[in-house]
Design brief:
single chain; mainly beta; SH3 type barrels; two-stranded antiparallel sheet
């Protein structure tokens, strides 16, 4: 299966981000003979499609102007997608952010903590508990 995905150009990465998340999309840009990485930082306002045709839209404010960019999820030009913050939204498409500005356009942040293996307290032996009486 991985051979087929590699042949078709499908990335087998786990794209673990949702609308409302703030992401950094690292894209490869070719300028003449050189190639460099350009970072587009913004809020994911939508994800659409499945399979090879899946894409997502990222919105940011640049010099007071809203800029939206649509990225194909499996594009070979995308180097990596880095989740900066996880936002809490109740919609799959958060296009309403287009009409908001300033503090009204903020999203509440969700802390995704990785559950650490907490050391378990050992119960005290019964002989020591009764000795204090």
């Amino acid at each position: 299966m991985k051979d087929i995905a590699k042949y078709l150009g499908i990335k087998t990465d786990n794209f673990d981000f949702n609308p409302g998340d703030t992401v950094k999309v690292h894209t490869k840009v070719v300028e003449g003979d050189s190639e460099r990485i350009q970072i587009f930082d913004g809020v994911v306002i939508s994800r659409r499609g499945s399979g090879i045709s899946a894409s997502f839209t990222v919105r940011k404010i640049s010099y007071g102007v809203g800029v939206e960019r649509v990225f194909p999820l499996h594009s070979p030009r995308i180097d990596k997608i880095e989740v900066v913050k996880t936002g809490k939204v109740r919609r799959a498409k958060i296009y309403y952010l287009r009409g908001l500005s300033g503090k009204a356009a903020r999203l509440t942040e969700v802390d995704k903590e990785v559950p650490a293996a907490a050391p378990q307290a050992e119960p005290a032996p019964a002989a020591q508990q009764g000795a204090g009486k």
